[in-house]
């Protein structure tokens, strides 16, 4: 099945792979890279730009750890070749907030709600939730759960991430007005059963 | 899991793109959203030497609604089509099906036309194309041609497209007036491929069933549609429960499910029957008996 | 007054870094390092006849291609048998790179090192291996049958065989009023952390030292293995565990072939080398767990009091046995659960198969034990027509300590140290509404819905030894640096250990920082496994903090000229009880604890030779003392402490599609006093979610030739948020008498009973026995068909 197509892409004299120029706009900064055509966006972000907040969990588009925003919409950076998103605006978790002293509302909500344990999947959730709340600033708990149902987390059981989505909405709204509430969202640690008999 | 070496080409006109494809030969593949292709490349199950990225081509990102059809350009993502209100008004089945395609992050990048080219009978949209009596338009150095859904799909993940052709648009046919539609599927997890899925387009007037067409996910070899009109035509909607048995029988005869690690063929057949019955019930539940209201 | 931190819902101190993309996992380190890829066997069982690497050498950027022939010295020996046990009859372990045969799909054969992973994979794909095929042994039946062998040296494919017996189970069963037999089956899942394994190795030519970063659950273990196999002095090897993206057991096995191979490559190539396991590799070359076939004979009286329990089970340990019999041993020693069963016999066989190795996955044999016992309890209750909770209650242990007469995984007898199972059950019944369920079911049935209620109870030995240590130093800034040797994969050690130290030292928690899993900071440690982190390192840092506090009070007492017994530390200030004016910041105590000749700043000046008055009759450092406000201590328990819990779930099964939905999931959990209830609940949530995966979604689908058919997240169905229910929790806090903090482990608890609970609930909904887990809608539908055809029995309850 594998065909030997290397000769065209290896520069054997130079002892390396051929590259092509790729211009990427990441977190508002334009970068000019010289990278092979097969470089995945996830690898370009992590290895070429040093933005290691974007994590790689499966490289087949299921786990969501590598989720970044492409023109504001969540996408899997492991399923995109860097060369195919030139001129688009890419936002990584660092673009949402890279200062531990001053986390963004979604990031703060994760801290408040104990919505992470090992933290590996977290950046993919944060980018996903950032975009979701832009579309739905006042989600119900069920909507929050649905919104994160395309990302895998192996540590938390998701419950506190659902809480964090509502908490983030609350924090974002609180930034705009004095009081806010999130119907149906209990505080951290307690739980609301669905369809309690 | 890194793709094999390849060269990524980014043409800026359709002419350039089809010329590239023609010149590069079968070692080149078209990539748009890449949501089905890139996993395969990452696992090195396919190793094309060249990718022709069509995301930079102008004019392929439009959704056009006409009296007969919803026409979707090759660069329209699932998500855009799903959220397009005009398309939804014209053909609600599109949104009904699209919300079941993987997860939003995949729909944000994956294109509807791309999923047609992928021709996966486990995918929702090839079936929808078949069910709507739709067609696609393919471009190559030889010009453009239109291919109907029934011609397009020739095997699982197999189409009549030539290696140097690019699908530039798809045309989903609108249903006759009075047609109501529904889509349902059962997945193991949210966003997974369906164990089985089905969609029904049921034309009703004056409390009577007129025509019916049903399409299936994950239980047929090819994305296709089953015409059930002869079973329903002229029957009062209120008697749908009576004809359900015949519909289920016809459906289970038609489909050809296979066993895999997720479900046996027997289960899929049973499930498809259940889904067919539920669709029929769902689409007739609110129809008053003839003469009323 | 400093608030006591123990017991508070302190927000995690790890989080600000992790949520802002500032976590540092192995693959985030080593920019510019060479990268490794491996040629792995595509066959389950074969001899290797020839390896042709020539094609790989044409790929640019390839630096090294190693086969077994390139391994020198001890590196070429079989990987260690980490946990010897008398039950092991045929210990077989693999090699760093396959020697002359492969025993599972995924076994590493060739290592390629290149400029980057893309090129390394290119080269690996061009290496040709010629095989001579052998029959693959897949599944317990095939292994038990023994017609084909995985290893010639293991006849009958038996790796280990053990009988444990207390009392006279066969005799008591023979004379019991009722006897039941059950055959049970539980399948394979896997830890499946979001981050796979990873190794970054750097050789320092100048001083002949090796530094390895590994995504491991034991940095000290990896260090010792590297030193031994690379023949390096231990003090020339350091292993650092950076942020780890989840472990759940799979990262406790060590040394993984890649850890040794990368360490060796760094040394030989004198370059920094890195390996980042990809998802497919993780599926086929890490470890799985759970698969067992179980046979139960139970005798009991009319009230459901169990007279005797006789168990046999067959455990699939995969291709090799590096981690010994820990998993089946945990099963055999946890079957008794919260029940007082003085007559118990268990016999198990641990069997080789041509599949990925089996090492602990969260619960580590205990989920299988709970499954066996709880399925049995439900069967007894159904047979007698009694309420399932009443039969359980009839058998509870009520007196502590309760010795069970079995030797546990730590080589010591299992003795339940404390617990309150009656109260747990009362709380659980109240939480789930056990006594109201019949009404709920009636209402549901009237609406055409099918629902069921299930229960599962368990105990868990936690906090096993041998030991963990703590090191604490208080800097002259007042900053408190705490180190413990075990590693962290999300358990909030940096928070909960800081809580413990802050309490004991009387300092604000903000002043405390905790380092884990870095052999440069703490060379003595065992690792993070078996729900032991908080118990072991928690008590270790607690004891260490006590020592450091005593030292601080002694130094401050000398300076303030008061009896140390009259001193206390509050908010980082050492002061005389009842006389707040006589005080000194801990930072100053730190300065004074280190007599100086040289003043490098104003603070240090206070400790120099001409600062203040001195007792010239005594040396600056007392004979029994050491400079610096720092010390170490270790906690080493006599035996494990037993946590416990009970879960209940309400499920709904679709009468037509057989789809299974969990409507409610309730947990009553007792891990003793909780250091941080928020963290404990997080552990429970995550544990239950993994349990739900194992009960309804996840299994390793091997075909008969040993190919893993679902080695991806597409087909291995780890649950998303939509599949995991909201979890309702209640707690008991029964202290352990075994350790100073009175705490018990919590990490694995949530996972342990879930398959038992869901089986119980589905069975209750369907009215026929569920004996095989996990269960999917197609499998449930098939059972219904067999039941309707009279091929599968009904429950007796009718």
Automatic annotation (TrEMBL), chain A:
Q: Does the keyword Iron apply?
A: yes
State the superkingdom: Bacteria
Q: Which SUPFAM superfamilies match?
A: 2Fe-2S ferredoxin-like, CO dehydrogenase ISP C-domain like
Xref: PROSITE patterns: 2FE2S_FER_1, 2FE2S_FER_2
Tell me the ranges covered by the 2Fe-2S ferredoxin-type domain, including all copies: 20-96
Keywords in alphabetical order = 2Fe-2S, Iron, Iron-sulfur, Metal-binding, Oxidoreductase
Q: What protein name is recorded for this chain?
A: (2Fe-2S)-binding protein
Native source species: Brevibacterium daeguense
UniProtKB/TrEMBL annotation, chain B:
Keywords annotated in UniProt = FAD, Flavoprotein, Oxidoreductase
Flavoprotein found in the keyword field:
yes
| Domain annotation FAD-binding PCMH-type: ranges | 1-177
Secretion signal, residue range per the UniProt entry = none
Protein name as annotated: Xanthine dehydrogenase family protein subunit M
InterPro entries to which the protein is assigned, alphabetical: CO_DH_flav_C (IPR005107), CO_DH_flav_C_dom_sf (IPR036683), Diverse_Substr_Oxidored (IPR051312), FAD-bd_PCMH (IPR016166), FAD-bd_PCMH-like_sf (IPR036318), FAD-bd_PCMH_sub1 (IPR016167), FAD-bd_PCMH_sub2 (IPR016169), Mopterin_DH_FAD-bd (IPR002346)
TrEMBL record, chain C:
Q: Does the keyword Oxidoreductase apply?
A: yes
This chain's protein is named Xanthine dehydrogenase family protein molybdopterin-binding subunit
**Region spans: Disordered:** 610-630
Task: Give every Aldehyde oxidase/xanthine dehydrogenase a/b hammerhead domain span.
Answer: 20-135
Give me the stretches of Basic and acidic residues compositional bias: 613-629
Origin organism lineage: Bacteria, Bacillati, Actinomycetota, Actinomycetes, Micrococcales
Question: Which residue ranges run through the membrane?
Answer: none
Q: Which NCBIfam families match?
A: CODH_aero_grp5
Does Oxidoreductase appear among the keywords?
Answer: yes
Question: Keywords, A to Z?
Answer: Molybdenum, Oxidoreductase
InterPro entries the UniProt entry points to:
Ald_Oxase/Xan_DH_a/b, Ald_Oxase/Xan_DH_a/b_sf, Ald_Oxase/xanthine_DH-like, AldOxase/xan_DH_MoCoBD1, AldOxase/xan_DH_MoCoBD2, AldOxase/xan_DH_Mopterin-bd_sf
Q: Which species does the entry assign this protein to?
A: Brevibacterium daeguense
